[in-house]
Write a structure and sequence with these properties.
With 248 residues, the protein is α+β, with helices and mostly antiparallel strands. It folds into three domains: 3-63, no CATH class; 76-107, no CATH class; 145-246, Leucine Aminopeptidase, subunit E, domain 1. Helices cover 39% and strands 21% of the residues. The chain contains eight helices and eight strands, in the order H-H-E-E-H-H-H-E-E-E-E-H-H-E-E-H. It has helices at residues 3-12, 14-23, 47-57, 76-81, 83-96, 166-175, 177-190, 226-246, and strands at residues 30-34, 40-44, 112-119, 126-132, 137-141, 150-157, 198-202, 208-215. A three-stranded antiparallel sheet has the order 3-4-5, with no helix packed on it. Strand 1 and strand 2 (40-44) form a beta hairpin. The two termini are 23 Å apart.
Amino acid sequence: MEHGVACCIYKCMAEEIEEIRQTFQHSAVNITPTFDGPYGFVVSGNSYGLQNAIQQLQKLPDKVKMHQFKVDKPGIPKYLASDGGQHSIQRLEQQHKVVIEPVGKYARKEDVLAAEAGPNATGRGSTSRVTLRGGATVEVVQGDLTTFRADAIVNAANGQLDHIGGLAKAIADAGGPEIQRECRSHVQRNGVIPDGQVYASTSGRLPCQLVIHAVGPIWKGGYSSEENSLYNAVFESMLAAEQIRCCR
C-alpha cells in the first residue's frame, strides 16, 4: 500500500475501520495500523472474523482518490517544508479530510527512516546512504560516472544538448559519437530542451542502458523559478528512469 493511500485511510477513515472492528467483535477481531512500512494493518481474531474483516479492509484503498500536481511559484515548495508550511498542511488536512504529501526534496522529514555514511561496497569510494519509507534507498557514491553499471545515468546537459564540456563531454567521449549524433538529431526535430525537462538517449559504449540528459536552470538570483526548474529536472529524470524499469 502506498504511503499516501495508507495515511489517508488512517486519518480519514477511522470511523469505517472502527465499524469493521465492531461488526466482527464477536470474533475477537482487532485492527491495528502499521506505520513502519510496509503500510497496512495487522488484523487478529478467529478465522471467520479474520477472513471477513480483511475483505472489508481491502475495499478501503479503492475509495482513495489521488492527484499530483507541480507547484511553479518560487518559494512555495520550500515554504511547504517549513514548520509554518507543515502547520498549514495539517490544518487543511483536518478541515477537508485529505492527506497532502510534498514529494522530492520537500518531503516530510518523517519519511526518512535512516541515514548513514561509510565505505562503498562497490569499491568506488566513500558513500552516503538514506533509506526512505517503503524501502527505497538513495545512495551517493564518489567515482567515475562513465564506469558505473546501472540502468541509466543522468547527464547535466544544456538545452541544445551540445556535450562540449564538463560531465557532458566526459559522457559523450566515453560513450562514443552516437550519443551526440542522436541528441543533435532530436533537437533538430523537436527544438531546444527547456529548463527542467529531460531527454533519454542511447548510451553508446557506456555500461548502462540509457543516458538521461537533464537540463537544469542557470541561476539568475532566484527570481526566475530556478529552484522549481531544478526540482523538475530531478523529478523528470526519476520518471524517465522508472520508464526504463517498466519497459523491461
